[in-house]
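Why show two proteins at once? Because comparison is the fastest way to build intuition. When a single record is shown, students tend to memorize it. When two are placed side by side, the eye starts asking what differs. So, the first record is below.
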Amino acid sequence: MAHKPGPWRCFHCDEVFTDEDAAREHFGTVECEDPICGVTAERYREVERQLASFLSETDAASTTFYRLGAEHAAKERAAEQKGYDRGLADAKAHPETLGLMLATGTP
């Protein structure tokens, strides 16, 4: 899309912007953003709460991410332990095939 030179007029508040940076600040940088004149105090506080939740990693996505990571780590530890236990049982059952010898002369 070609760059459109100013001035830019807001259809919500009728303010006119001749400076591109000021217009971008008012309208946002993408079409899905609301013009700043249309943001209510309630919406502003809601976004603040969402940001605080995100930054403290208590939002739904972070909670799910850490839960899945913990579940994966537990399964990984269980699989490692199962393999270790199997190897230990094999070593005890067939020490001669592994080149292991029983210790002699120990009390």
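Second record. Ask yourself what differs from the first in the token line.
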Amino acid sequence: MITLQQRHYNAQKRNDLRSRKLPPEIVKGDWDAAQKNAKKYKSIFGKDFVEIKNDDDLASLDKKANSLYSKLLGWSTSFPKNKLALQWKEAELIAKQGYAAQRSKTLGLKEHK
């Protein structure tokens, strides 16, 4: 899980620079919700959670992007091992098997085992 974070002040400042602005109270509500969600995601994903602070200068962001790239390479070769991720994977595999069986039945195909 990757999340981009910025200070509330910067979120409001960037909103003010846009041609289509949101009311400040909507920006604040969305910012608050993002902070709350980031805490939940961090507890779920553990070491597989990466937070990038988007308040830095360009050189700092480049350094963070390079670090993130190496982490992504590691993620792409293995599945997370935490309990919630494994439960999600199992549920998706079961759903996929059920879908395949239903699809075969609907199309009148023999199921491969």
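One difference worth noting in the second protein: The longest strand covers residues 2-5.
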